Amino acid sequence: MSDSPNQSPARPHALVFDSGVGGLSVMREIAALLPQIRLTYAADNAAFPYGTKTESELVARVSAVIGTLVDTIAPDIVVIACNTASTTALEAVRKFLKVPVIGVVPAVKPAAAASQSRVIGLLGTRATVASPYTATLIAQFAACCTVLTHGSPELVEAAERKMQGLPVDMVEIASVLQRLFGQPGGDRLDTIVLGCTHFPLLGAELVAAAAHPVAWMDSGAAIARRVAAMLGPIEPAALSYRPAHRAIFTAESQAVDRMRGCLATFGLREIGFLEPTPYAEPNYRQDRA
Ligand code: DGL
């Protein structure tokens, strides 16, 4: 089944992709900067979480799911709103897709440039923090700084819980942050990179649990500017147009049901499900929240 066509350059259509709800932190920046474009938010919840998977597992899975999504909905641009997927699978995905693909990587460069104390932190998933891509990013752009890193699956789960309206354990969040602030030099940390798109969704909780005040940096606004630059000028006729957005998940679950109210606050009232089958006709169906 293919998507209802609306691919006029006047009303571009962007696919924003993550393992779960984290990419919503990027989608909200894109929607704020480009309210006239149509957005499909896709979450590979069947394979969530990505951050504990190996590089080869990630390349295979991300390629399969994004390939199926692009075949099904034919977006004008793809945003991999997941640091874990981008730092491992971005090049592989770009090789087989004809549409432009933007990836999100940890904001190490602006953090290093902004830090006064020259001690910055990087919070990400375990996969992102351990990836060779991240090591290169740090060597290239933060050689002037001490970079303290920590990979946390707990924060990813906490963001998912928050989006489902479930309680967030502040003691757990404080203990995760202590793994960063408690490292040698942690008392001089002045900037922390949120190198996982789930983490900005916990902004208030992170501020409240930090051992001392720091600047928090993520890549959402920069990604939105990149999308705008790649799409180019939007035709004036489309400027008053406010398209409906939709969400696609790779598995039905109670968690998705609990999220419907929260998704609606992001303009995602239509929810669909798609099983990634890249070499066969995709099985797509949808219903309304
Ligand atoms: N939101 C994702 C990221 O930016 C990954 C979360 C996960 O699935 O572990 O890295």
How does this structure look, described?
By secondary structure, the protein is an alpha/beta fold. The chain has two domains: 13-104 and 221-288, Rossmann fold, CATH 3.40.50.1860; 108-218, Rossmann fold (3-Layer(aba) Sandwich). Helices cover 41% and strands 20% of the residues. The protein has helices at residues 24-33, 55-73, 83-96, 108-114, 126-130, 132-141, 153-163, 170-181, 203-209, 220-231, 254-265; strands spanning 13-18, 38-43, 77-80, 101-103, 119-124, 146-151, 191-195, 215-217, 245-249, 268-275, 283-288. The model is unreliable at 1-9 and 278-289 (pLDDT under 50). Bound molecules: D-glutamic acid. D-glutamic acid is lined by residues 18-20, 22, 48-51, 82-84, 125, 128, 156, 196-198.
Which key terms come to mind for this protein?
Rossmann fold; binds D-glutamic acid; disordered N terminus; 11 strands; 4-stranded parallel beta sheet; alpha/beta; 2 domains; 7-stranded mixed beta sheet; disordered C terminus; 41% helix; 289 residues
